[in-house]
Amino acid sequence: MPAPANPRIAVLGFSIECNKFAPPATRAHFLARTYLEGDAIIAEARGPTPTMLPETPGFVAAMDASGPWQPIGIALAMAEPNGPVEQAFFTALLETIARRLRAALPLDGVYICAHGAAVTTADDDSEGALFEIVRAVVGPDVPVVATFDLHANVSDRMVDLIDAFIGYRTNPHLDMRGRGAEAAAGLRELLAGTKTERVRLRLPIVPPTVTLLTAAGPYAEMIRLGQERMTSEIMNVSVMGGFAYSDTAKNGLSVIVTGRGSDSRAAAAALAREIAEYGWQQRARFYAHLTPLDEAVQQALAAGRDPSLPALCFADVADNPGGGGRGNTMYLLRAFAAAGVTGALFGIVYDPELAAEAHGHGLHYHFTAQFNRAETTNFSEPWSAPARVAALSDGNCVGRRGIYAGQRLALGPTAALAVGGITVVVVSHRLQCADPVFFEMLGLDVRRARSVAVKSRGHFRGGFDEFFGPDQIVEVDLPGLTSPMLQRFQWTRLPRPVIPLDLDVEYRLS
Ligand SMILES: [Zn+2]
Question: Going from the N-terminus, what domains does the chain have, and what CATH number goes with each?
Fold first, then answer.
């Protein structure tokens, strides 16, 4: 059959990364970030500063550029990483998607912007549930392509129910738009009649977040190997690091190969196996190594005192809002303040009450800043310090660099507080500190800081790389909901035995 001249393509999405140890994500969290239905999805995807992650804009732009099509927006729900999604919201979203898909029939294809590390309060495989409903409505023959974050935890049905599996290949995630465009190219092929085979292999390795960088390291090498082995029989190779804190039975470093053509299964399986074997050989490298707090404090003190030393970027990887952390733990700030660290920027701390109070006081007001007076989550302890309101902002900005580049962002009422030699940025909406614009919008100069402490696991690397090379980054070992020291958590669902938690882990490729 020739490709339809003006194909009707449904566009939908569900994207959140869920940390079982964090409080649940509610409907309000999606409404506060991105919740769109119908034509509004396509309109925003084509707009100059969308709120949605860039895969969908990349998909829409590539479809626009590659020929006629009729985009049909269904529903798109995205929220900042958090705890499990409340099942009632997810059920309502599935019903909306099914209803709108049925109304849009007949369809020629479907694009799904998925994340892959969602869970709900009642379901560990929410993407699988979503794909099942999509497939049930459109039937077995309509091509369905989906994009995934490389932190996706992948089930068999997530692979089996779609025609092409396309995961990010960069961490920090700087290729979201590119993967959306790749999904469009794949969908055009499928519309022209190409069939695919998908193969998935999972290793008994749940990699700590800090071992999943793609500039260098074992994970980078697995991804590179996959790209080097691309042939005409292979449509896509995705190596998914997974997200440990979802704590599901489907966790584990996975290789998913989409083979091109109905007789590509053997080639796809052989390639998946080669990459999985390579990953298994590298298993000793999937352990986290962090800098102890005392050492980090000494480094920050020295950087503040001696301008001839390089400036440093301290990452509070254990309190990363981008992984469900609350963005408000005080371990690092308290230690820096107690030691008398100077020339430091610290951010961004999620504390709406404190930000509101600072706005009430106004610029240059001196007061006792009480952090975490309302937050009662684990690790989010109260702390007080004398402070001065150094700058104020409404928190509206457009991302400048890295994963947020070009995105419209709202941090809510925001304040810079001078606490001794440290300037702390306090915000009202929880977000990871992945973009220097969060300091710059308050008039703070990152280039002049001797130390910058960020609540981010790794995406700060894509935003702050113009100030800090890899040798100037210090990943600090602190308590928190996103600590890479996985042995500190009470796991209930992870497949065991597994690296890095257990000894004597075996893996046999069948
Ligand atoms: Zn991710």
Answer: 8-195+236-250 (3.40.50), 291-483 (no CATH)
